[in-house]
């Protein structure tokens, strides 16, 4: 079975991990700090904080912005559940935004209408968490303008977007957002096994996240209530979490980061081949603007002729039966039983629902062989002729 994505680990990656495992410190050591500094340089952000997952990162981002049970946060309906779950961890109310069927990112026109209505009802969101879907950047400038007009904060869910470019700038620079969060899960652009990174240009958010990542505990003198100038003294300032990454994961991350631009280049080459191959077929593809660059964490195809769950399931199973590991990214979050219990029903975000019933993520990863690409392309085309 050809997976839809997989990690690429070479001998240098392995040796970097072994070196740390043989050292005196495998956690809370210097590699984490080194990784964070190099990631800030990569994204051109002031601060970076390594964490054990993007889910943890989104949670900490919400906490640092003061999201609580009096808050409401809006997220795209078409995302992994963690994008919404992080809001619920804080006790806040979550609401869902529809996507457009061109770039699969937030539908900004629908968002504007929703913001106007919410303001009239005094129910404006405290934050919005846009997703760079598949690694394709959303319109950051436009959303930033709306954030200033309506007073909400922006947390970028950049889980798909390590190495993506928005108007020549790396996603994660936080020029048009408050905080960005990345994932280093094995199927993403780069990996640390499990893990993630938070970037921000705001010192206040950075310091709060740094403390929350480590149980809410600090040794920094400027934060201590009791001015005890002793090396053994520390204080818990708030209820925090254990969201640390290890040093051997950070070592892997440092080495993987060196190759991100090459990884993205290879993924773009495969995407280009797919686009060229499907241009005359009855297949809908994600549109990437000329001044944007997608990392292509995912490559999604849409068969708009699909008109039933039975037909979708049949096609999905045919792909798998023929050794092509397609996947669905994603079901609308509010279709899950947990969110249905909060009152959300089918029909709430129609584009996200149409996407979920017509879309397949086909394999794309750096080591995908030409012969495998040829097989995938041929079968994708074959499906267009089934239609039943």
List keywords for this structure.
388 residues; Aspartate Aminotransferase, domain 2; 13 helices; seven-stranded mixed beta sheet; 2 domains; alpha/beta; three-stranded antiparallel beta sheet; Aspartate Aminotransferase, domain 1; 38% helix
Highest-level CATH class of the largest domain = Alpha Beta
Low-confidence stretches: none
Largest sheet features = 7 strands, mixed
- The CATH homologous superfamily of the largest domain is termed Type I PLP-dependent aspartate aminotransferase-like (Major domain)
CATH second-level architecture of the largest domain: 3-Layer(aba) Sandwich
Global mean pLDDT: 97
**Helical stretch tally:** 13
Classify the secondary structure makeup into a structural class: alpha/beta
The end-to-end span amounts to: 24 Å
Identify the quaternary structure here. Answer: single chain
SSE pattern, N- to C-terminal: HHEHEHEHEHEEEEEHEEHHEEEHHHEH
Shape: globular
CATH topology value of the largest domain: Aspartate Aminotransferase, domain 2
The strands making up the biggest β-sheet line up spatially as 1-9-8-5-4-2-3
How much of the sequence lies in strands comes to: 5-15%
Percent helix: 25-40%
Strand tally:
15
Radius of gyration: 22 Å
How many structural domains does the protein architecture include?
2
Task: Please explain how this structure is put together.
- It is built from 13 helices and 15 strands.
- The two termini are 24 Å apart.
- By secondary structure, the chain is of the alpha/beta class.
- Strands 1-9-8-5-4-2-3 form a seven-stranded mixed sheet, with helices on both faces. A three-stranded antiparallel sheet has the order 7-6-13, with no helix packed on it.
- The mean pLDDT is 97.
- It has helices at 11-21, 30-43, 54-64, 82-89, 108-120, 140-150, 203-213, 247-257, 260-278, 309-321, 337-340, 350-356, 370-383, and strands at residues 47-51, 72-76, 93-97, 127-128, 153-157, 165-166, 169-170, 179-183, 196-200, 217-218, 235-236, 284-285, 292-293, 299-302, 359-362.
- The chain folds into two domains: 11-257, Type I PLP-dependent aspartate aminotransferase-like (Major domain) (Aspartate Aminotransferase, domain 2, 3-Layer(aba) Sandwich); 260-383, Aspartate Aminotransferase, domain 1.
- α4 (82-89) links the parallel β2 and β3.
- It is 38% helix and 13% strand.
- α1 runs antiparallel to α8 (247-257), α2 packs parallel to α8 (247-257) and α3 crosses α7.
- The longest helix has 19 residues, at 260-278.
């Amino acid at each position: 079975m050809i997976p839809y994505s997989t990690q690429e680990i070479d001998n240098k990656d392995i040796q970097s991990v072994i070196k740390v495992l043989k050292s005196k410190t495998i956690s809370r050591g210097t590699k984490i700090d080194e990784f964070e500094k190099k990631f800030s340089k990569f994204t051109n952000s002031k601060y970076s904080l390594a964490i054990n997952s993007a889910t943890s990162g989104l949670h900490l981002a919400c906490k640092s912005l003061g999201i609580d049970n009096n808050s409401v946060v809006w997220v795209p309906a078409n995302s992994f559940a963690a994008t919404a779950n992080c809001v619920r961890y804080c006790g806040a109310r979550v609401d869902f935004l529809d996507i457009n069927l061109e770039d699969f990112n937030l539908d900004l026109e629908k968002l504007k209408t929703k913001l106007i209505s919410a303001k009239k009802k005094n129910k404006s969101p405290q934050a919005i968490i846009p997703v760079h879907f598949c690694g394709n950047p959303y319109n950051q400038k436009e959303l930033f303008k709306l954030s200033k007009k309506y007073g909400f904060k922006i947390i970028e869910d950049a889980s798909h977007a390590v190495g993506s470019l928005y108007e020549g700038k790396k996603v994660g620079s936080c020029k048009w957002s408050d905080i960005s969060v990345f994932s280093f899960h094995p199927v993403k652009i780069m990996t640390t096994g499990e893990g993630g990174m938070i970037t921000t240009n705001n010192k206040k958010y950075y310091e709060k996240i740094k403390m929350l990542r480590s149980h809410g505990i600090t040794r920094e003198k400027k934060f201590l209530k009791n001015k005890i100038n002793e090396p053994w003294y520390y204080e818990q300032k708030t209820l925090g979490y254990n969201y640390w990454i290890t040093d051997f994961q950070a070592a892997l991350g440092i080495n993987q980061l060196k190759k991100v631009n090459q990884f993205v280049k290879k993924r773009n080459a495969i995407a280009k081949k797919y686009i060229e191959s499907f241009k005359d077929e009855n297949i809908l593809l994600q549109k990437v603007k000329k001044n944007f660059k997608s990392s292509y964490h995912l490559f999604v195809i849409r068969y708009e002729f699909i008109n039933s769950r039975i037909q979708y399931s049949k096609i999905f199973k045919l792909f798998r039966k023929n050794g092509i590991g397609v996947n669905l990214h994603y079901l609308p979050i509010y279709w899950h039983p947990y969110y249905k219990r909060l009152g959300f029903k089918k029909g709430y975000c129609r584009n996200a629902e149409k996407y979920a019933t017509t879309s397949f993520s086909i394999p794309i990863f750096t080591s995908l062989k030409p012969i495998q690409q040829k097989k995938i392309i041929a079968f994708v085309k074959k499906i267009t002729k089934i239609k039943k």
